[in-house]
Amino acid sequence: MIDQAHTLTLNWEGPFAWPGFESVAGLPSLPQKPGVYLQTFEYQNGYLIYLAGITRRPVSARFKDHTRKYLNGEYNVLDIDAARRGVRKEVWHGWGYARAHREEFEARKPEILEAVHRQLAGFCIFVADVGTGPRVLERIEAAVMNHLYRQPPPFCDIPDKGMYLAPRRPSEDPIRAENVCRALLHGLPDFVEV
């Protein structure tokens, strides 16, 4: 929660498994709460962040949407083994490319879906419950992603680029966010301005 001094503590809980992959990953299910989440891969005694996302619904409900989009080829799919070494190697490029290349997706579908399943099973999810205020959620997501983009490789290389982000507007007071997590989240600072 935000106190009077405009300070916010982000208590990152996790790691959790991607829904449906709990037994494969050996991790617990996602909590039934809203907030900010980090999709990460295991990396050098910690976790390498692939992306930050937000939801005002329970995180597990949001991940059903993500699963559907992965299985339809709408999202980027990475080689999980390369990602765990800090190397971004795409098996499939989603987004606009996917819309323009449906025939390629259909022709490569078995290979791509195998990589999707490996990626979803390899994700380790962290969640911070900060309520459902849209601007706070958007500002945290933007602050985390923009911080990662400014980091040295591999922290800047793994995350997707071109996300729609809504950082703090000049008319909004800054919020100092403290990141607290028992696990090492590579590239995430102790404090970030939101």
Automatic annotation (TrEMBL):
It comes from Meiothermus ruber (strain ATCC 35948 / DSM 1279 / VKM B-1258 / 21). This is GIY-YIG nuclease family protein.
